[in-house]
Amino acid sequence: MPDHRERLESLLRPGLTATGEDKGFLDLLGEIPQAGPPTGLAQRLMRTSAVPMIYERYWRPTLGRVAKGLNGPSMADEVRIAIDALGLRPGQVALDVACGTGRFTRAFGEAVGPDGLSIGLDGSVTMLEKALAAPNPVSVTYLRADAVDLPLEDSTVDAVCCFAALHMFANPDAALDSFARVLKPGGSLVMLTSARHGDQPMRLADTVLGRLSGQRMFDRGEIAGKLARRGFEHVGERYSGVTQIVTGELGVNIRK
To answer: What is the SS3 assignment for 144-202?
Structure first.
């Protein structure tokens, strides 16, 4: 059976090492409370001790339903959509950015099997502690690190997932650059993020609510365009309420 922790360490950029005592996850941030500047209330709540306790069962499903609308996908649907979009196979490496309590990470671990690697990356200690408390497949390992400036070497993962997080990053464009950098040519990306309505007054309301909570509201088509400019192909969009699921594959000639 491969040592998945050692395999994760082998994928890190040179010079990066874990800090402090072993917490069950590889910690590259140490005493730093968060990587990058704060963006608002929503981001701060993710670092509390209370929200991780209710995040997977109550917090995320409830707020997700409000954002996605009654006809939007459920949490279970989201996991299925992500796995289908990524086309995960045994032996592959999947990266779950802003993994929270690890629901997607665990599902990816099942999909890639014991010879694969599913990396759950988050900046919150409390989220990762909650993730570790759940039964995890042997292929799952967790990493506390910057979700915007990913600590992995170039072209090291087959699939990247980032659900319900891009709109809370201080620099989402830098995050997209990182996603493209760590993906192998032909690798897959799936994201769930915000999508502002196109018509007033809904568009204005979306903008105001986003600013109050510290969440960026992307225009419809904006993320797809950003991916295309970074060399992604077969870009797809799926809208529900004020959310969008965007998929793409990194062009095989992108590094040439």
So the answer is: ECCCCCCCECCCCEEEEEEECCHHHCCCHHHHHHHHHHHEEEEEEEEEEEECECCCCCH
Question: Quick one: angle between helices 172-182 and 222-229, nearest 10?
Answer: 40
**Cα end-to-end distance, the chain, whole Å:** 35
In angstroms, how far is CA 11 from the centroid of its own chain?
A: 18
CA distances from 196 to 102, 169, 212 (A): 27, 17, 15
Reduced to 3 states (helix: H, G, I; strand: E, B; else coil), residue 27 is strand
State the pLDDT confidence band at 75, using cuts at 50, 70 and 90: confident
83: which 2 tokens? 């796995």
CATH topology of domain 4-250: Rossmann fold (3.40.50)
- Within 40-102, where are the H helices? 41-45, 50-54, 60-68, 75-86
Q: What is the pTM of this model?
A: 0.86
Pick the residue with more confidence: 149 or 209? Answer: 149
Residues 251, 232 contacting (CB under 8 angstroms): yes
Q: What percent of the chain has pLDDT over 70?
A: 77
Contact 250, 232 (CB under 8 A): yes
